[in-house]
Amino acid sequence: MKYWIIIVAALNRKRWRTGLTISSLVVAFLLFGLLRSVAVVFTEDIDLSGDDRLVVASKYSIIDSMPISYLQRIKGIEGVDIVAHQDWFGGTYIDRANFFPKWPVPPKEFLDIYEEYKISPQDEEAFINTRNGMIAGKRLVEKFNWKVGDRIPIIGDIYFLKDGTNLWEFDLVGIFNDSENPANEEQVFLNYKYFDEARDMANGTVGNFIVKLDDKEEGPRIAQEIDTMFANSMDETKTYTEKAYAQMFASQIGDIGLIMNSILAAVFFTILLVTGNTMSQSIRERTSELAVFKTIGFSDITVMLLVFIESLVICLIGAFLGLGITAILMPGLSEMVSLSLGQVALDSSIIISGIGIAVITAFISGFPPALGAMRLKVVDAFRKN
């Protein structure tokens, strides 16, 4: 108990300095928790088994299209339940700041595959039967104050109409929601048939196919069979799970894991310098106090451990507060990260890693001053003071 009193007294000696150091650590571990949680979603290993939906894309580039005729051949593979397809429409709604994904799809097959997109039967029927129909996610509808029956203008930047203009108009015929992953509600789906008939190029092609399986354990076999079927053709394919495809799509902007780990490395290197400087300055100011401890019977090892524990307490307080704030912010962050990458979560491995980093930081920053305290000679300490 007496040792804890000494440690607390040391921390309270210069409260403003201790507070600033802990605040820096809180920010560092807050960044660690947030960035690592997101990075895990982008970098964790993907297994083809255990997922009942596959995405068939072009083998060489995500911007390459494939003939829609592939659909019937894929559908003929044993174990395939439903096949749909989608395209990246691009386009701008009023202003480029109003970005949201726009996907031309076959209405019935697409909604049959994505059962998590909850939509009323009448809205689904309207989407199927309306040539230029559009359905939008609930959050997007609320954001732009849309309502069913509105005509939504989209300025095309990839696809133009056959008459040479680029102003597309779609009728909002339904609203869907996804309570499990609300981020999915920030996109719209368009009737593919109208889109394909009206566009001025690439008719009869699709961006990728979505394949619903009868048995999710058959995923690896079916994926291989699809890619083998189209091997050596003009449009070869590469089949992924949805999550693997989303990771690949995200990787087009760079190595997410490397970027985030580089940021964290820079942050913790700076924090290591700050914490080390704080501990060294604190020990220099308390040289006479440490000499008194040795005079009244504290061993060199005990004095060294006191300094180590002081460093450890500072780092652990910062880590627990930072990771605690991360846990509070995590639900909001999870909603912001879309779409098929999965839920962002502060899992136990990240917490354990954070605590481990706190201990390592405490050791590295506390070692020089602790070693100096252990080697301190009582006579020299009193002579200096």
TrEMBL record:
TM stretches of this protein: 258-280, 301-330, 350-374
Chain ranges of the ABC3 transporter permease C-terminal domain: 262-376
Main location: membrane
Keyword Electron transport in annotation: no
Topology with respect to the bilayer: Multi-pass membrane protein
Record localization: Cell membrane
A single GO cellular-component term on record: plasma membrane
Keywords assigned: Cell membrane, Membrane, Transmembrane, Transmembrane helix
InterPro entries from the UniProt entry: ABC-4/HrtB_transporter, ABC3_permease_C
Highest taxon above the source species: Bacteria
Protein name as annotated: FtsX-like permease family protein
Source organism of this protein record: SAR86 cluster bacterium
